[in-house]
Amino acid sequence: MSNTTRSTALVTGASSGIGATYARRLAARGHDLILVARRADRLEQLANDLAGTYGVAVRTVIADLSTEAGVAEVGDILKADVSVDILVNNAGVSPLGSSTTLPQEVIDTMIAVNITALTHLSRAALPGFIARNRGTIVNIGSVMAFNAFPITSAYSGSKAYVLLFSKGLQAELKDTNVRVQAVLPAGVATEIYDGSIMPLDSIPKELVMSVDNLVDAALAGLDSGESTTLPSVNDAELWTRYESARDALFAATQTGNPASRYRF
User: Which residue ranges make up each domain of the chain?
Assistant: First the structure.
């Protein structure tokens, strides 16, 4: 950071849960904030709390990231405000159900928020980050990026996009000081369970991480230089082997000949 520009973090989906906790942790680290969400009352309450507690400047933006207008408004802020050097793409929705029972408009909204908004906001932030040769994008994905169940087809697909988009950006930016971190939580105790998945109390407590622990682990991963953070995975070698196997599988595809089992 220059001596004349204070660091600002823009957090989407900031009115509750993971986004609100990121806002609190980043305020505690001295970052000014731009908080984006749909719920004005909650957002204003959080902003007043953080400004009073940590002495940081907090701006609120009421925007629906499932709409073009909402994404454009936040994108314009990212393009114009040179103090922004952290973008937390946290906003997301997770309707579960089979591909034939989920209403099309529900799937469309999920794609708009989980994929389109995240992509547009990343692209809005990146030119400035690259020009200033500093900045961090945190993309909140899910462990469902590498698994799918009968009720998660669309959701898993959206989170697989978040992971691979993040990995592609990391490769693009490898020779810069701009960082991209993909955070892949498993079960986290947030309002997302209130009717959209299943009652939280129906899930064994030992399988659900607190929001505080999730965000603290994600920030520890960021501080340590991780490009992909799996807060609930104790054995980091599992991810290393997964990456190696994927790379080997991709390398094996690079031939113009059919595999011997398909020859006729």
Answer: 8-262
Catalytic member of 22, 54, 155, 161:
155
Class of domain 8-262: alpha beta
Given this model, what pLDDT does residue 188 score?
76
Q: Among this protein's residues, is 155 annotated catalytic?
A: yes
Residue ranges of the chain whose pLDDT lies below 70: 1-5, 189-207
Say which residue the tokens 């498993």 belong to: 186
Take residue 126 and report the two structure tokens written for it: 């990146």
Q: What is the pLDDT of residue 187?
A: 79
